[in-house]
Amino acid sequence: MAKKPNYSYEKRQKELAKAKKKAEKQRQKQERKDSRQEGDAPSAQDEPETDPADSPDAEP
């Protein structure tokens, strides 16, 4: 006698694989979004530090 196929197990495995793939795509999308935001926004390292006393408007 042949074994009866377990369709519910196969379906669950397929659903899990689909969810994992979707989560991976979402993670990659978020990483791309984060990297674009880092490139657009000026960081504190790019700007030179200035002392307010060095500005021409500062009063002695």
Number of strands: 0
What's the end-to-end separation, in Å?
99 Å
Q: Compute the gyration radius: what is it?
A: 28 Å
Tally of helical runs? 1
The secondary structure category is: mainly alpha
Spell the H/E element sequence: H
Portion of residues in beta strands equals under 5%
Shape: rod-shaped
Mean pLDDT: 82
Q: Uncertain spans, ≥5 residues at pLDDT below 50? A: none
User: Could you estimate the helical fraction of the residues in percent?
Assistant: 55-70%
The main sheet comes to:
none
Task: Tell me what the structure shows.
The chain is mainly alpha-helical and 60 residues long. It has one helix at 7-40. The radius of gyration is 28 Å and the shape is rod-shaped.
Secondary-structure map with pairings?
Elements: H1 7-40
Which labels suit this protein?
60 residues, single chain, rod-shaped, mainly alpha, 57% helix, 1 helix, 0% strand
